[in-house]
Structure formats: structure tokens, C-alpha cells
Amino acid sequence: MPALPPNRSPIVISGPSGVGKGTLYNLLFERNPETFTLSVSHTTRGPRPGEENGTHYHFVTKEGFASLKNNGGFVESAQFGDNFYGTSKATIEEQTRKGKVVVLDIEMEGVKQIKASGFDARYVFIAPPSFEELEKRLRGRGTDKEESILKRLAQAKLELEFSKTPGVHDKIIVNTDLEKAYEELVGFVYAEPQ
Ligand SMILES: Nc1ncnc2c1ncn2[C@@H]1O[C@H](COP(=O)(O)OP(=O)(O)OP(=O)(O)O)[C@@H](O)[C@H]1O
């Protein structure tokens, strides 16, 4: 595998919760540590124990966040509960300048925003082999309460529907077998620019 893919534009990975996005891109990082990096988001929520500013998130005040947003500094942003989250253009540009291919893990509304912003990226959707298998993975992961699992499954229906919109994603990978899905992702990421 060459050290750097010929196309270095950021990769936006989306797909329903529990489909295996994190599992897949973590393999990409583990196996190619010099090449890829996960985009670091901004958030107004406070750091949890062990979280470092600049590594897990850029922790900012609500005022700081609002000012960045008003200046068009985010390619996408969202509010969850009382907290704001966003992906800053400057952060991605800085990580790209350091020679890394930036991977972004973005949910559906964020993908719509990024696409609307005209941001130059490659869009990959990770799909489950079936809805039943998605539910099995979410339950098998053992990290979510029943209420959260039901919410994620309801949202998954919308995401799967959206993924059928022509022209939104450059690549759709069905994550049936993890190694095969990984190979497909690598094949796409290292492909020559069209
Ligand atoms: N191909 C696969 N076959 C079977 N299980 C898988 C496969 N890929 C991932 N999994 C498992 O599915 C579960 C969900 O994976 P993961 O946490 O990576 O999903 P995610 O899409 O990143 O979810 P979220 O958006 O909620 O962070 C994990 O327990 C993971 O080990």
C-alpha cells in the first residue's frame, strides 16, 4: 500500500448508528497510522475525564462557538440537548496541511450541510446487510439502553432512505464481512482521482 493515497481530499463517512463506521475507520487508522486522522470537532460541552482539548474535541464556550459559526467557520454544526457541535473548516485544512487524509464521521443532517457548503470531500456511506442485522449489532455492542436503541433504529430508517438519493454518496459499502468492507474502503480511498 503506498504511504499516501493519490487523492488526499477528506473522506466523510456516514451511516446508521451501529453499522460499524467506527470499527472500520479505526482499522484504517491502526493499519495506516501515518496516513489518516480523524477530524477533531468543536463542542460547547465540558470535557469528560480523560478527554483532552485538541485531541478528542476542541472545547469552546457557547460565545466562541457562536462567533465561529457566524463567521462561516463550520462546514457543519448541530445542537444535541444543550450542547453545540461543529466541524471547523480551519481544523480540517490544518490537519490536511500536515499531510494527513482527514476522515470525518458525520450524521445525515451534517452530510446535507457539508454537501450544501460545497466542501471538497469524498462521501462514503456504510450500509448494514439488513435492518435485522443492524439491530443485532446495536444490541450486541451493549453500550446503549433500550430507549436509545429504539431511537437509533428509527433514525436508521431515515438514513437508509436518504442514502438512496442519487448523487449524494460517492461510494456505498455494505458492511457484511468486516475485512471485505475494509478492503472496499481502502480500494476506494486509494483510488486514482477520476
Ligand atoms: N462486519 C461486521 N460484522 C459483525 N459485527 C460488526 C461488523 N462491523 C462492526 N460490527 C460490530 O457492530 C457494532 C457496532 O459497530 P460500531 O460501534 O463501529 O458502529 P458505528 O457505526 O460506529 O456506531 P455509532 O454511529 O453509534 O458510533 C460493534 O459491536 C462492532 O464490533
UniProtKB/TrEMBL annotation:
<keyword id="KW-0808">Transferase</keyword>
<dbReference type="InterPro" id="IPR017665">
    <property type="entry name" value="Guanylate_kinase"/>
</dbReference>
<feature type="domain" description="Guanylate kinase-like">
    <location>
        <begin position="8"/>
        <end position="190"/>
    </location>
</feature>
<dbReference type="InterPro" id="IPR008145">
    <property type="entry name" value="GK/Ca_channel_bsu"/>
</dbReference>
<dbReference type="GO" id="GO:0005524">
    <property type="term" value="F:ATP binding"/>
</dbReference>
<dbReference type="Pfam" id="PF00625">
    <property type="entry name" value="Guanylate_kin"/>
</dbReference>
<keyword id="KW-0067">ATP-binding</keyword>
<comment type="similarity">
    <text>Belongs to the guanylate kinase family.</text>
</comment>
<keyword id="KW-0418">Kinase</keyword>
<dbReference type="InterPro" id="IPR008144">
    <property type="entry name" value="Guanylate_kin-like_dom"/>
</dbReference>
<dbReference type="GO" id="GO:0005829">
    <property type="term" value="C:cytosol"/>
</dbReference>
<protein>
    <recommendedName>
        <fullName>Guanylate kinase</fullName>
        <ecNumber>2.7.4.8</ecNumber>
    </recommendedName>
</protein>
<keyword id="KW-0547">Nucleotide-binding</keyword>
<dbReference type="GO" id="GO:0004385">
    <property type="term" value="F:GMP kinase activity"/>
</dbReference>
<dbReference type="InterPro" id="IPR020590">
    <property type="entry name" value="Guanylate_kinase_CS"/>
</dbReference>
<dbReference type="InterPro" id="IPR027417">
    <property type="entry name" value="P-loop_NTPase"/>
</dbReference>
